[in-house]
Amino acid sequence: MGKVVGGYRFVKTIGIGSQSKTKVCVHMDNGKLFAIKQFPKELLENCVVQERLHKIYKFNHPFFLSVIDVLKSETNGYIVSELSEGGELFSYSHDFSETRIQVCFIQPIDALLFLHSQGLFIGNLKPEKLMLSKDHHLKITDFSLSVLPQTTNSPYSAPESNKSELSDIYSAGLILYSLITRKIPQNNSPLNFEGVSQGAIDLITKMTESVPDKRISLHDVKCNDWLNGIKETNDQKFEIKNVSESNLVEEISRVSELTAFEIVGKAMSVDLKALVEGPLVGYSATSFTVEDSANSVYQNAKQKLIDANYRCVEKENKAFVAHINVDRKILTTRVEVFERNPTSTEVIFYRLTGEPLDFVKVFNEIRTQFAE
């Protein structure tokens, strides 16, 4: 049934960072779903982290995920927060229009304005920290540990070694660049603005100025001509694909890894739809259907990734894990194949490590090859 810590039962891992793991958990008393971040307890003993957590715990802002609990065991620290049931923003951003991106982008700007007014900054803002809530609003996830030295260098990180509020502006500019171009910024390489409107180019350029003091302020970002006219952010919503209850039952019966969801749901009257839609759909997992037998699709999918220079390791029940080095970063994808009927097969891709945009790119490439 899963590990239990402080009255929270672990259900499924939805994120792995350099210093932590994030899981869906269920509160044993009320059956509500939360996200719980697990990390070495020594990090929780850092006085700066404690100070940030003390401030974050008091937050009541629509664009931040609320911190519910902070726990410590003999070996680990835990931060329990609101569960963002929509999943990662970049799981849905591949078909956003520039207008929708404008609506999307103003929300983290509002969040950063509030954060900086509280004397705090993130320092390593990146796409994985931008989540979608159940009501489709954008939220910044927990950043209490971001003040600590980072073991990996994100392509969205500002160039200065001493991070500050100005570093968040730089990172936000690169996130905007990725949202519009569907490209990941490359270290020490100029940004490729092909097909981008001049207004967006001007804003991104001002936000990603290499000299921190020359960067545009967040207040000026919000008043920028490209974003002009988008004032009421609370009413802006995204469209997320809904899954019918009958399909959810089918998903559970087919995906062996989700058996724990069914058990917990029946035992504790948990909202099963929220459990399945979050990890399966939102957290960098997606699928497509092929009109062919499961054996044929499995072999073809694996061969297509091998041909694309992926190293594939076979797992049980028609599943394999594929690894590739993308700009010195490892993208790891788990691929599972399920037979709907003798002539129809579903292929599910899970992102285990790596950048969301790289994951979306390989998924779309394989899906397109099967469609040809």
Tags for this model:
alpha+beta; TATA-Binding Protein; 6-stranded antiparallel β-sheet; globular; 14 strands; Phosphorylase Kinase, domain 1; Transferase(Phosphotransferase), domain 1; 3 domains; 372 residues
Tell me what the structure shows.
It is a single chain. This protein has 372 residues and is of the alpha+beta class. The protein has three domains: 4-82, 2-Layer Sandwich (Phosphorylase Kinase, domain 1); 87-229, Transferase(Phosphotransferase) domain 1 (Transferase(Phosphotransferase), domain 1, Orthogonal Bundle), CATH 1.10.510; 283-371, Fungal kinase associated-1 domain (TATA-Binding Protein). It is 34% helix and 24% strand. It has helices at residues 41-44, 47-57, 98-117, 165-181, 198-207, 218-222, 245-254, 259-268, 272-282, 294-307, 356-371; strands at 4-5, 8-16, 21-27, 33-40, 67-72, 76-82, 87-88, 130-132, 138-140, 285-290, 311-315, 319-326, 329-341, 344-353. Strands 1-2-3-4-6-5 form a six-stranded antiparallel sheet. α3 packs antiparallel against α4, α4 packs antiparallel against α5 and α7 crosses α9. The radius of gyration is 21 Å and the shape is globular. The protein starts with a strand and ends with a helix.
